[in-house]
Amino acid sequence: MDKKKLPTKKSITLYVVITLGFLLFKMAKCFQRETNETRKAYLLANMRKKKEQFDSIFDPELHEALLNRGERRFTLKALQGALMISLYREEPRFHQPHNLLLALMDIDSLITKWRCN
To answer: Which residue in 29, 62, 74, 98 could disulfide with 56, CB within 3.0 to 4.6 Å?
Structure first.
């Protein structure tokens, strides 16, 4: 029986970089086709924001600044771990952790609804 190796941080980084590259490429194509200047400015700002969010996943100093401002609640390792579980949810060894994350998100959503009502 051939066991699969766990994905490494390098392979996850590569996967995320490729995914972001594709996303930014699609956004750039939309930006180039747009003729409305207001819409172009909006698309450019959106593209920059996505790039900043991506950079914060791998830059500890940027992530720490977001934590201090209250924009993030997880440590960098916890965020990267949750990202890995989400990206590899199809792998058998990540099914159960992914289901646990989904259950925790559901609980958080239900508690938030309960507090508001």
So the answer is: 62
**DSSP label at residue 35:** -
11: left (phi over 0), alpha (psi -120 to 50) or beta: alpha
Arithmetic mean of pLDDT, 54-73: 90
- As a whole number, mean pLDDT of residues 2-11 equals 63
Other CB atoms closer than 10 Å to residue 72's CB: what's the count? Answer: 16
Tokens of 61: 């100093």
The Cα 95–Cα 75 span in angstroms is: 23
**What distance in Å separates the CA atoms of residue 109 and residue 113, rounded to the nearest whole number?**
6
State both tokens at 7. 């994905």
Residues 24 and 47: beta-carbon distance below 8 Å: yes
Model confidence at 74: pLDDT above 50: yes
What DSSP string describes 23-68? HHHHHHHHHHH---HHHHHHHHHHHHHHHHHHHHHH-HHHHHHHHH
